[in-house]
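for the writeup, i need someone to sanity check this before i put it in the appendix. the sequnce is what the collaborator sent (i think, or maybe the updated version? ugh). structure was predicted straight from it, no edits. if anything looks off just tell me and ill rerun, i have time this weekend
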Amino acid sequence: MNARPLHVVQVFQPADGGLPDHVLRATEGLVARGHRLTVAGPADAALRPALEAVAAYVALPFVGAVPAPRADVAALRGLLSLLAGGRADVLHAHGQKGGILGRVAALRAGVPALYSPHSFVYRTHGDRPRRGAAARARVALGVERALGRRSAAIVACAREERAAAVADGLAPADRVHVVYYGVAPDATVAPDPALLAFRGDGPLLGFVAGLRDQKGLPTLLDALELLAARGAAPRFAIVGNGPLQGEVERRLTGGPLAATTLLAPFAGRVEPYLLALDGFVLPSYWEGLPIAVLEAMALGLPVVATSVNGTPEAVGEGETGYLVAPHDAVALAERIVALATDPAGRARMGAAGRRVAAERFTIPRMVDELEALYRAIAAGRPAS
């Protein structure tokens, strides 16, 4: 006899980036297996149309990651109304604000709650350009401990994240589980024509991510300028949108990188940009496990990334790419030029990355693990 379908409520914030991509993939996979999914997220979520195509979508007035009392209370009321309208088997909350409001609502409604941090915010305040970072970190850690001990499970995206959750007392070890992301980029789409035109005859390396503090853009530009001063800067594409766009434009316009570096907006899907590249660079200051890196590997691109958080669990030094320390522009420059000048190495590491992605970061495996976890928690059983 087949097990009955579950009703799973997914709650997420922020509105864009890798986190909603993951929620979409998980939702599609679970719906394909006959489960009922309700997704609650920001009204302006970039992937809202795609989520609405496969599940019921409840738009909430989420406002950023910082407290916004009026909007947060309204979002909490929306979640309580949603949970009161029909018995959910489990609620899975994603991101800091989604995790706080989703779990508070689930506790009040008597619904078991799981939480995916996708990088604990309390661990990142030292790298964020804000005042009072230490105090902010203490408050965030206190909230995570208070809610973590009352959560049915914490779902970490990497072993490193799980170890931190246990060491920092967020929940007992038997309630913190690792579920790696799954990706399946489409290799049949056409490469982006603007990037192909820019590359010329040599290799084109690139960055495809949000133009935000997290992603290490100042270090990337410093590294490229070091190479330009030596006459060794490769063709490089920076693809993305975000608050640092103006700063990137300022450093490229009329500067030493004007002839070798292209800034392009991100629109639509990631595959056309990745398929126009010969190597992928992501010098993040912090990550959970970067989905952009997994997608690049799945498409056969060698990767240069920073050895932060869960990234070394995907990128093998000298095997699928190179790892450097965050904020180290000199080391990043050395690895960028090494990748640009070694076509055989790029081919070898790209092929290895494709194999790793196919073995470890697949959507069916991810959905298997989430489904098993949901079933165990819904039944009140310990999750293996």
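Residues 193-360 form a domain with the Rossmann fold fold (CATH 3.40.50.2000). The chain has a mean pLDDT of 95.
thx in advance!!
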